[in-house]
Amino acid sequence: MRVILPEIKELLSSKQRRTIRKVLSYFEPADIAEAWSEFNIDEKLKLFTILNTKVAADIFEFLQEDQMVELLDNLPTKRKVAILNEMSPDDRTDLFAILPTEEVEKLIPLLEPDEQKRARELLAYKGNTAGGLMTTDYITVSENVNVASVMKELRVKAKDIDFIQNIYVVDKVNRLQGIIPLKDLLTTSPQRKVEKVMENYFPNVGLDMDQEDVARVFEKYDIPSLPVLDKLGRIKGVITVDDVIDVIKEETSEDIYHFGATEVTDQYLSASPLNIAQKRVIWLIILALAGFISGSVLEHYSYLLSSIVTLSFFIPILMNTSGSAGTQAATVVVRGLATGEIRLRDIWRVVRKEFFIGILMGIIAGAITALRALVLQSDAALGLTVAIAMIIAIVIATSIGGMLPIIFKKLGVDPALMSGPLIATILDTTTLLIYFNITILLLYRFR
Amino acid sequence: MRVILPEIKELLSSKQRRTIRKVLSYFEPADIAEAWSEFNIDEKLKLFTILNTKVAADIFEFLQEDQMVELLDNLPTKRKVAILNEMSPDDRTDLFAILPTEEVEKLIPLLEPDEQKRARELLAYKGNTAGGLMTTDYITVSENVNVASVMKELRVKAKDIDFIQNIYVVDKVNRLQGIIPLKDLLTTSPQRKVEKVMENYFPNVGLDMDQEDVARVFEKYDIPSLPVLDKLGRIKGVITVDDVIDVIKEETSEDIYHFGATEVTDQYLSASPLNIAQKRVIWLIILALAGFISGSVLEHYSYLLSSIVTLSFFIPILMNTSGSAGTQAATVVVRGLATGEIRLRDIWRVVRKEFFIGILMGIIAGAITALRALVLQSDAALGLTVAIAMIIAIVIATSIGGMLPIIFKKLGVDPALMSGPLIATILDTTTLLIYFNITILLLYRFR
């Protein structure tokens, strides 16, 4: 796309409408949308006047939010409304969700009556539920017609719908009775009744289902689309798999960012340092304040450090290794909670498992650390102290690291907020307490 | 499904074949597969003898790898081959990829001649490329036939294919010329020539494209399926969006686990602690050894710690806060590299941005720490030292944290291996060095 941009700009300035339409027809809407920022606002408006409504709406759906808003602010009302009428209802709802309410209330009455109804209905659902994900672009047929009349219906409606995988069979009050995959229609005799052809059992979800759970239904059943029903079993919309990809990406991204102790940053390269710092600094302040506690522990036991200076050499490695062991455990558990493998009631199974994992890893890390005390400090008692502290610190680290995300989830807080840095900071305090108390029990009384 | 398990087990022991078939037809294959571990091996084998091949193959495709292998090891050869013939070629290839080569070489010659050819072809592609993801279940038609004959062809072939979205139009040597969405076939006059109906421009990918890039093509164009072409433009297979969901989940999971300094653990609850410890301990050893370096830094400057004991109280908070700031930067950059927003050539933009972010956050964290020194230690000089050390440590932390993942990627190493714990461990050393040197410059000369 980018290679022919100069030519397109040239054509735009010389107003060669037909050639522009022809040239752009060689490109995917997504590719044109990707190059959108290369045009100035005049060129954008000219393009949207020249292209036919369907093509313009296709490109529009792929634009970034700020680019959509820019066009809405500048296009003549008639053109704007034509494009909004043409958009797929779910994408239009996403757009309305980012506009000010007053503007949406001005726009909706301008839409075609059918689209007005759809728009209001979809806007009523929360964005992160099945109702917020679904489109109202789907085809229903009555259960007592035959395949030939379904085909006839299909011929009329198919043009307006991007993605048809199934035909939905409903009773008189719109309750979903069955589904017919499009390809089955083609291989069935036209005289057969719909109710003989349809599949009676099929996955479906309720309007209120959380989008993460919707994504899991898609993954589990490997299906391209999913009907959404209200409490009475009436079909209200259809979710297609491409919308679910966005959900999966969104949810895992959120987990990753939280787990790295930062808020989601959509546009990194174009955001200002101040803007990004704001998203991170709250976490950093929390972590710094939490770090005061370990400072106070050090202060409390400073008499030990003054009398045995070598003790302090092992503080970083103890804090690091236990912090890392805790982060590892938390990573696996946060992930398990996200995929649904680990449930709240598994908390003791997780803690028990992490306890044993901690013992195994603690023995190895303890042995390595003891070796350092023996070789560099030639101090067997110190080596023993450090090794025992390491084993206990790691056992506590893995157990707490595995437990905290589950407790967070139990409290209704995103478990990914139990981030690596937060776990490490919490564990610093426990590790120092363990270290100094083992020192008092073992090393200090023999010095 | 689970609620009627006792009844199904009962039916199995009394060999009521027809009733079993009937009862199981009410459930999705994915639901039956989910409850699979509740059956013992005898029941599993009985079920696979009773069910018809198509249903058995559908369930089989949803089983976990070890469950598939168990069935292959125990089913009579005839039944085993029937199911392998019925499976979709891409799922079968995934199964063959986990079996020993000798076993695959024994199984392939037993397949139907057509399936043998497909199986060998698909096995030749690497699992993580477009060739490894694609299925050979798709329908091609010649460019000079009319829509009616396409429909005829479709009626014959549609039954064997799970997911038909497009018909692929090819020339005499199988080069892809265009695609026809299934729904367009329904709305077009049967007499029209295929070449008049087809879309000439459409996204497509090469056989060797990495699966992560394939997933990005799906995301960008919002399409349900994607043709895979060889270097001469001949169609070799089709990738469907449901396979791409698995890729996206797999790749982000891998990133998350690496970022938490652990290897991917598929089955957490059922794996033994020893098994899980093995996946984590290598990282812990690396981190422990890296921790020796900061221990040596402490040792080198221990004369400072013995003369100013209060210095040590601030070591945990400095290490923590800079470690966390570095983790935040690395999280955002690892994610940006994964989504493609950040490219290798952006390294200096990233470092410059992180430098300024570090200054902003450092001033805040430094002020908090200085306040602690003033309030609890009533030591203004210590406060100044700690604050300056904090600012410099955080600036270095964010800059290094942002830079290292890009350098890893440049070296061809997974940037997510630049994990939070590893960044924190590396930064411990730089933070201690900064702290002690600022102390020597400022605080130590006045005591």
Q: How would you concisely characterize the structure shown here?
A:
The structure is a homodimer of 447-residue chains. By secondary structure, chain A is mainly alpha-helical. Chain A is 66% helix and 6% strand.
Overview of the molecule:
The structure is a homodimer of 447-residue chains. With 447 residues, chain A is mostly helical. Chain A has 3 domains: 2-124, MgtE N-terminal fold, CATH 1.25.60.10; 140-240, Roll (CBS-domain), CATH 3.10.580.10; 273-446, SLC41 divalent cation transporters, integral membrane domain (Tetracycline Repressor, domain 2), CATH 1.10.357. Helices cover 66% and strands 6% of the residues of chain A. In chain A, a hairpin with a 5-residue loop joins β5 and β6 (235-240). The mean pLDDT of chain A is 88. At the A-B interface, α12, α13, α15, α16 and α17 of A face α12, α13, α15, α16 and α17 of B.
Record keyword descriptors for this entry.
Tetracycline Repressor, domain 2; homodimer; 66% helix; mainly alpha; 6 strands; elongated; MgtE N-terminal fold; three-stranded mixed beta sheet; 447 residues; CBS-domain
Radius of gyration of chain A: 31 Å
Number of strands of chain A: 6
CATH evolutionary superfamily of the largest domain in chain A = SLC41 divalent cation transporters, integral membrane domain
Sheet having the most strands of chain A: 3 strands, mixed
Shape of chain A: elongated
Secondary structure layout plus pairing:
2 copies of one chain form a homodimer.
Chain A: H1 5-13, H2 17-24, H3 29-34, H4 41-50, H5 53-62, H6 65-74, H7 77-86, H8 89-98, H9 101-107, H10 113-123, H11 130-133, E1 140-142, H12 147-157, E2 166-170, E3 176-181, H13 182-186, H14 194-197, E4 205-206, H15 211-221, E5 225-229, E6 235-240, H16 241-259, H17 273-300, H18 302-307, H19 310-313, H20 315-339, H21 347-377, H22 380-410, H23 420-443
Parallel strand pairs in A: 1-2, 4-5
Antiparallel strand pairs in A: 2-3, 5-6
Helix pairs in contact in A: 5-7, 8-10, 15-16, 17-23, 20-21, 20-22, 20-23, 21-22, 22-23
